[in-house]
Design a protein that fits this description.
This protein has 297 residues and is α+β, with helices and mostly antiparallel strands. The chain contains 12 helices and 9 strands. Strands 3, 4, 5, 6, 7, 8 and 9 form a 7-stranded antiparallel beta sheet that branches. A two-stranded antiparallel sheet has the order 1-2. It is globular, with a radius of gyration of 23 Å. The N and C termini lie far apart (62 Å).
């Protein structure tokens, strides 16, 4: 009797991967991160982990289609064919272009770096950076999971079911604080990321210990100590003469009222309450102007 084959379940199909496609993406991603250079085949092989034969086949096809160029020394760079595709993609996703002028005005007026974070499914992607933030993780194409305690300016206006799911993913000890913070963000219109203080090295050490093989009582004690060191955002009554601020983020709303992005100013310094409120107001205005341009696009 012939073997009966069952079609894969939808979930299996959704999670399937295509190694050949992945290799093309790896090559293009690498070349895009070195857009001012000509990369040798050997360097591409080392960076992607592809075999030399596979890398050569991928790049030969990309070059034939105009997505990459090969110089007389056999080195590669991005081609005009890919630029055409990028321009079409930019037309389909205009937010970065619409936000740039408002971000630049904000950065110039307040002398702070500014970045744009856009939501993509269950992640946040940094798509534009003006200036040079002092925090190393702030860079174009950086992807952050849509998980607590980050992305607060995205979740504060979310439907109840999404907000509840986000809170349930947090450390139980942090949920009351996060709930209060989300309410405050929705009321004032922006989130604040606090500067790490002198407790940061201790916090890092405690976190490492919590994930090592320890007894449950010790793990619970470590979690309690970590909770005492972590302070998420500022509540209104907590503002004082010196407020340690990494960033201030204001949401960009779609016409339907969903948060699709945020404009984030990065002072990374101590601010008085007046200075914090002034920068928050300017950041919110930049986000509102961007949303207005998006609605009329």
């Amino acid at each position: 009797m012939a073997e009966t084959r069952t079609a894969p379940a939808a979930s299996d199909a959704d999670t399937a991967v295509s190694p050949p496609t992945r290799r093309v993406v790896q090559a293009i991603d690498l070349l895009s991160r070195h857009s001012g250079e000509q990369l040798s085949l050997a360097r591409i092989v080392r960076a992607t982990g592809m075999s030399r034969a596979t890398a050569h086949a991928v790049l030969t096809q990309l070059t034939a289609d105009g997505w990459t160029l090969r110089d007389q020394d056999g080195n590669y760079c991005l081609g005009l064919g890919l630029m055409t595709v990028a321009r079409r993609a930019e037309a389909a996703f205009p937010l970065r272009r619409l936000a740039t002028d408002h971000m630049r005005e904000l950065a110039t007026a307040h002398r702070v770096p500014v970045f744009l974070a856009e939501r993509e499914a269950d992640a946040i992607v940094i798509t534009e950076v003006i200036g040079t933030p002092s925090v190393p993780w702030i860079r174009t194409a950086r992807r952050m999971p849509f998980a607590p305690p980050v992305c607060r300016e995205f979740i504060a206006w979310a439907p109840d079911f999404e907000r509840t799911a986000w809170l349930e993913a947090a450390d139980p000890a942090h949920r009351p604080r996060l709930t209060a913070v989300l309410d405050a963000i929705r009321d004032r219109g922006y989130s604040v990321e606090r500067l790490a203080d002198d407790s940061a090295p201790m916090l890092e050490a405690l976190t490492a210990l919590r994930h090592s093989p320890v007894t449950d009582p010790l793990r619970h004690r470590l979690s309690s100590m970590i909770t005492e060191l972590i302070t998420i955002d500022y509540l209104p009554h907590e503002l004082g003469d010196h407020n340690a601020v990494v960033s201030i983020a204001a949401p960009v709303f779609t016409r339907e009222g969903a948060v699709t992005a945020s404009i984030v100013a990065c002072p990374d310094t101590n601010l008085s309450t007046a200075s914090l409120l002034e920068l928050a107001s300017a950041t919110t205005q930049a986000a509102e102007a961007t949303a207005s341009a998006l609605h009329t696009y």
